[in-house]
Amino acid sequence: MKSSILSRILAASLALACGALYAQTIDIKDAWVRTSVQGQKATGAFMKITAKENERLVAVASPVAGVAEVHQMMMEGDVMKMRAVEGGLELPAGKTVALTPGGYHVMLMDLKAPLMKDSTVPLTLVFKNDKGVQSRVELKVPVSTVEPGVANGMGADGGGTMMGGQKH
User: Fold this and answer.
1) Does residue 23 have a pLDDT over 50?
2) Would you tell me how many other CB atoms lie within 10 Å of the CB of residue 101?
3) What is the structure's pLDDT at 2?
4) Which residues are paired to 134 by β-bridges?
5) Considering only CA atoms, which of 81, 82, 138, 135 is closest in space to residue 107?
6) For the chain, what percent of residues have pLDDT higher than 90?
7) What is each CA distance from 35 to 100, 112, 162, in whole angstroms?
8) Which residue blocks in the chain are alpha helix, DSSP H?
């Protein structure tokens, strides 16, 4: 009997430990990808990211694009410039960082086909925390001409389905 109880306690402890290992520390909301047309080779993906601890968005990938990078758009005088974010995008603990048109965003380049409205795009986001531990979040992101919730006059309240995250 003691052996049976001990086995159950051990199994429950192991399950809790595994759950903690894969606990998600990143919250992603309002994710969407802008539609593209035939011949267009690039588009943007946008979302709101909140990390529970200090993290960096260090890599992005998608099978729909040859290249995926975190970019920043900014004004320098009267000229709008866009460039890749070197070293990853900082995500301070508890603060929501918005990836928006005209600011930080995911740039999908070398598109393999046009991205049609009402389809979805798989995105893989790779994060690294202050301890150097990486986590990966898989998303299925809706393709739209406008931010989710804007077309119907309501505030954005969803979009992008987190498929899971895992620590590496």
Assistant:
1) no
2) 11
3) 52
4) 128
5) 82
6) 64
7) 15, 13, 20
8) 2-21
Q: What separation, in Å, do the N-terminal and C-terminal C-alpha atoms of the chain show? A: 38
Reported pTM: 0.76
Q: Which of 76-80, 96-100, 107-111, 131-135 has the lowest mean pLDDT?
A: 76-80
Region of 139 please: left (phi>0), alpha (psi -120 to 50) or beta. beta
Cβ pair 115, 37 in contact under 8 A: no
Q: How many CB atoms lie within 10 A of CB 32?
A: 24
For residues 143-168, give the mean pLDDT: 58
Contact (CB, 8 A) for 30 and 49: no
Instruction: Please state the rounded mean pLDDT for residues 17-27.
Output: 55
Rounded to whole angstroms, how far apart are CA atoms 41 and 166? Answer: 31
Contact 69, 107 (CB under 8 A): yes
Q: Which residue type, as a one-letter code, is found at position 98?
A: A
3-state secondary structure of 7: helix
Are residues 125 and 108 in contact, defined by beta-carbon separation less than 8 angstroms? no
Half-sphere exposure (Cβ direction) of 46: Cα atoms closer than 13 Å: 24
